[in-house]
Write a structure and sequence with these properties.
single chain; about 210 residues; mainly alpha; Arc Repressor Mutant, subunit A; elongated; disordered N terminus
Length: about 210
């Protein structure tokens, strides 16, 4: 028996590649978490363009978000199976690989949720532009620090934070196989930095 959509949502929480989740509690369309229902709707939207294999759908999501959102196969394939159970997609085998095609039930679901889908895609496009700004900042292109309206402001601050997270992730990857004493040194630095960040939040400068 198929699960009710709300029950299914509790079993498949999506994950973000690169920089993690937006947060907890609210939906992606309100700028927070990319929920399982959002993931399902996104998959249907991609399949509305053309049939695709699961891997192709994952790459399409990564491309659409300019590398920000890359769901794991462990999230995408169960979601596709669930959509098949609901009759919103159909599956055929091509060289022992499953190819997914949008069904009439999927088209109806998109039509019923078009406004939410448009909001999701607009936000992904916005994030993709920010990601492009970060990459251009790294490359040193002129004007990369400016916001979308050509002014320095909130978008620059967000880009700087994302860039810092990128840099930290790359640095940490170099110590995964380091000796234990070196890993403890890095952990100490991170603990100290965390305390400084939290102390600054509690006592913001005026």
């Amino acid at each position: 028996m198929s699960r009710h959509p709300d029950q299914h949502r509790d079993h498949h929480h999506s994950r973000h590649g690169g920089f993690g989740r937006f947060g907890d509690g609210d939906s992606f369309t309100r700028g927070r978490k990319f929920s399982s229902s959002d993931l399902q709707l996104f998959l249907l939207a991609l399949l509305a363009d053309k049939p695709a294999h699961g891997y192709e759908l994952i790459k399409a999501m990564e491309t659409r978000s300019n590398g920000f959102y890359t769901p794991s196969p462990g999230m995408v394939y169960p979601a596709l199976t669930y959509l098949e159970e609901l009759g919103q997609v159909t599956v055929t085998l091509h060289a022992n690989r499953k190819c997914y095609t949008l069904a009439d039930g999927g088209r109806a679901h998109i039509a019923e949720n078009q406004e939410r889908l448009d909001g999701m895609l607009d936000k992904l496009d916005h994030i993709a532009r920010k990601m492009d700004s970060v990459r251009r900042a790294y490359s040193g292109e002129p004007g990369a620090d400016a916001g979308e309206d050509g002014k320095r402001g909130e978008s620059e601050s967000i880009a700087e934070l994302i860039a810092a997270r990128y840099e930290l992730k790359r640095a940490l990857s170099q110590f995964m196989d380091a000796p234990a004493d070196e890993q403890r040194r890095v952990a100490g630095v991170l603990h100290q930095a965390t305390r400084q960040i939290l102390d600054g939040k509690k006592n913001p400068t005026v």
